[in-house]
Write a structure and sequence with these properties.
The complex is a heterodimer. Chain A is built from 17 helices and twelve strands. By secondary structure, chain A is of the alpha/beta class. Chain B has two domains: 264 residues, Crotonobetainyl-coa:carnitine coa-transferase, domain 1 (Rossmann fold); 82 residues, formyl-coa transferase, domain 3 (2-Layer Sandwich). The chains are: A alpha/beta, B alpha/beta. Strand 12 of chain A pairs antiparallel with strand 8 of chain B, so a sheet runs across the interface.
């Protein structure tokens, strides 16, 4: 048995933040029904594509879901949708605020059909406040939340976090809110409205930077790979590239000096306290790199591991996938897709001893489950055929 | 009532990832009891660089809404107090390196034997299995090993990490997701279980887009500053007084963007005709856009683009982001009073629940602030409490 067996989720989402949220529910066993327009969700048209012509982007965040292709601009489509709502526990949408209301599938309308429904909206900025109606992208949220101001190298052009952290963070806070609402429903018997956004996720992930600013008045700046409050804690150059080391505290610092053969630095007044190392970080980096740049990354990583100093390579994405720890933890998995063949997907990062997240199936083909779902909802074969002829379903 | 009212969480955590997990649970109403060694408390309390009236800002940021019980786990009677507490708890969260809790007699097996309904969560650098299980892991190391650093930074500059510790924070979020899933499972089966996640796995899961791109194309994703590898224009562009972000990544938005900056000529330029052309000729496209945008202020262009419905925004510093009217309208900054630090600020709850909202009600506790209160709840008599105190157990 899985944690969310028997929980039905209507997935009215596109692209990344919303689909990530519902994918995390699907991984736990929920029956996630992706409701798509008859021409398919926009991500199905996005690059890059696999040899089979399928969008890899779509496959990436829609595993473990079923697909129902339904025209919500047709009243008969909305009727089908409302029947589905009556049998569902959760709905997730990530339209711009106002669109769901225009389609007749906003929270108030659907809660009147099913008072136990948990309805989650994920948008650029949230449903209220001065920017509620603006379109929001990960890039825009990274810029406005302060994240970009702390990312990159000082003096260089602006840099965003390379992974879409505002999108993914919003998906994670969305699923957290939904799971909390499920807990609350056990107590109250009622569903509720859950509302989060890319912008708020970006702000909420800035706990450290916000507290630093509030406590010190210093504006957090970008420092490449270095840390504003710890040193050495950054990437250093080896003869064949960079590697990371975190040896900032008073226990690890002398060990790292030992690895480098720079024991005298532990007695150097510039570096003998953490505050000193942070203050004189640039000088320290020069002294350390004079040594590290003479040997390979593998050499230094082996030495650091022997000494118990946290350190690691800067892996490319393919190197990360091939890493023995990634393999051991099941972070790269494969699943059969009816057209695309065997496709890879990332594993769920949470391991559970009794009800682990599971990869049950690849992302669905457009409308793959339309007929099955309509039958589950009690539609007779004739009605299904009529809806198909009218192009209300596909 | 909050969503997690009545859920008790034992928080045996330090630093950031796991404290962020339990903080999110506390924000939603869980009774989170932080277990700290008597005297100085959790090591994060002693971080010196960011302080308010001698109180660690890092500690304040991650421990609001929690209670503190100080107990010495190196004494058998201390472990006994902890076990008595565990019998009343729903969730136990710890982030020691694998092996430490077993040595202390409070590993999953030991606690599950006495309390099979307990949900036990471990958050570590690399997870409790696999070849790196016993290594120390920091956010920096996980960012490097997961591939995130390889896609962050200027194309030609030195490496850069995500300025926010996203491996720490998302490991905390994934842990909260796993815990809530385990509570759902417990409600159905009566059984607790072990939930196990890590910084490394959380970071890898954030490369979903990059991993997919690699699998689909065989190309290793590279860093591109603020730009996107698969779409353009979607990046920071220069104004007369700095940079702003703009995401005009489809034909409709590109049209609107060119009109907003009065560059209709770009719409008929063959180099930029289709999405793929704009991506292929990104450098030329941005150069063309910047010849115009560099002639006006950020505020000017943001107003024009916003009016045209093109997603865009400033690149805010933290003081700007935290004072933004939208940040305030979404209650993302909360005022609190701490007995020593005085008036402090905290970030709000990024996911809004309509019926059982989360709330930031109390500042982080003093060491052992709630020891007597909690011991009394557990049924320890005044005499027993005096005895435990006299022996330095609590």
């Amino acid at each position: 048995m899985m944690a969310l067996d028997g929980v039905r989720v209507i997935d009215q989402t596109q692209v990344m933040a919303g689909p990530t949220c519902t994918m995390l529910l699907g991984d736990l066993g929920a029956d996630v029904i992706k409701v798509e327009p008859p021409e398919g969700e926009t991500t199905r048209g996005m690059e890059p594509r696999l040899g089979s012509g399928h969008s890899a982007a779509f496959l990436a965040v829609n595993r473990n879901k079923r697909s129902l292709a339904l025209d919500l601009k047709d009243a008969r489509g909305v009727d089908v949708f409302k029947k589905l709502v009556a049998t569902s526990d959760i709905l997730v949408e990530n339209y711009r605020p106002g669109v769901a209301r225009r389609l007749g599938i906003d929270y108030d309308t659907l809660a009147a059909i099913n008072a136990r429904l948990i309805y989650c909206s994920i948008s650029g900025f949230g449903q209220t406040g001065p920017y509620a109606n603006r379109g929001g992208y990960d890039l825009v949220a990274q810029g406005m939340s302060g994240i970009m101001s702390a990312t990159g190298n000082e003096g260089g052009p602006p840099v965003k976090v390379g992974v879409p952290i505002a999108d993914l963070g919003a998906g994670l806070f969305g699923v957290f809110g939904i799971m909390c609402a499920l807990r609350a429903r056990r107590l109250t018997g009622r569903g509720q409205y859950v509302d989060t956004s890319l912008f708020e996720a970006g702000v909420a992930l800035s706990q450290w930077e916000a507290t630093e600013y509030w406590c010190t008045g210093n504006v957090p700046k970008r420092l490449g790979t270095a840390h504003r409050l710890n040193a050495p804690y950054q990437a250093f150059r080896a003869s064949d590239g960079h590697f990371t080391v975190g040896a900032a505290n008073d226990k690890l610092w002398p060990l790292f000096c030992g690895v480098l053969g720079l024991d005298h630095l532990t007695r150097d007044a510039r570096f003998d306290t953490l505050a000193g190392r942070v203050r004189n970080r640039v000088e320290l980096e020069v002294l350390i790199e004079a040594v590290t740049s003479t040997k390979t990354r593998a050499h230094w990583l082996a030495r650091c591991e022997e000494a118990g100093i946290p350190a690691g390579p800067i892996s490319t994405v393919p190197e990360a996938h091939a890493d023995p720890q990634a393999r051991a933890r099941g972070m790269v998995q494969e699943v059969d897709h009816p057209d695309a063949g065997r496709v890879k997907t990332l594993g769920n990062p949470v391991k559970m001893s009794k009800s682990p997240p599971r990869l049950r199936k690849a992302a669905p083909r457009l409308g793959e489950d339309t007929r099955t779902i309509l039958r589950e909802l009690g539609y007779a074969e004739d009605d299904v055929a009529a809806l198909a002829r009218a192009k209300v379903i596909a | 009532m909050n969503a997690l009212t009545g859920t008790r969480v034992i928080d045996l955590t330090q630093a950031m990832a796991a404290p962020f997990c339990t903080m999110n649970l506390a924000d939603m109403g869980a009774d989170v009891i932080k277990i700290e060694p008597p005297g100085a408390g959790e090591p994060t309390r002693r971080e010196g660089a960011v302080q308010k009236n001698g109180v660690s800002g890092s500690f304040l940021a991650m421990n609001r809404n929690k209670r503190s019980l100080s107990v010495d786990l190196k004494q058998p009677d201390g472990v006994a107090v902890m076990k008595r507490l565990a019998r009343t708890a729903d969730v136990f969260v710890q982030n020691y390196r694998p092996g430490v809790v077993t040595r202390l007699g409070i590993g999953y097996e030991a606690l599950a034997k006495e309390h099979p309904r307990l949900v036990y969560c471990s958050v570590s650098g690399f997870g409790s299995t696999g070849p790196y299980a016993s290594r120390g892991g920091y956010d920096l190391i996980a960012q490097g090993m997961s591939g995130i650093i390889s896609v962050t930074g200027d194309e030609d500059g030195p490496p850069a990490k995500s300025g926010i510790p996203l491996s720490d924070l998302t490991a905390g979020l994934y842990a909260a997701y796993g815990i809530l899933a385990a509570l759902e499972y417990r409600d159905r089966t009566g059984e607790g279980q072990h939930v196990d996640t890590s910084l490394f796995e959380a970071a890898m899961s954030l490369t979903v887009w990059e991993s997919t791109e690699y699998w689909a194309t065989g190309r290793t994703p590279q860093r591109l500053g603020s730009a996107h590898r698969l779409t353009a224009p979607y990046q920071a562009v220069r104004a007369s007084d700095g940079y702003f972000t703009v995401g005009a990544n489809n034909d409709k938005l590109f049209d609107a963007c060119c009109r907003a900056i009065d560059r209709l000529d770009l719409l008929t330029d063959a180099r930029f005709a289709a999405r793929d052309d704009r991506l292929k000729n990104r450098a030329a496209l941005i150069a063309e856009i910047e010849t115009t945008t560099a002639g006006g202020t950020r505020a000017h262009w943001l107003a024009r683009l916003d009016e045209a419905g093109v997603p865009c925004g400033p690149i805010n510093t933290y003081p700007e982001a935290l004072a933004d009217p939208h940040t305030l309208a979404r209650n993302m900054v909360v005022d609190l009073v701490h007995p020593v630090a005085g008036e402090i600020k905290a970030l709000g709850v990024p996911v809004k629940l309509s019926d059982t909202p989360g709330a930031v009600e109390r500042a982080a506790p003093l060491v052992g602030e709630h020891t007597a209160e909690i011991l009394t709840e557990l049924g320890y008599s005044d005499a027993e409490q005096r005895d435990l105190r006299a022996r330095g157990v609590v």
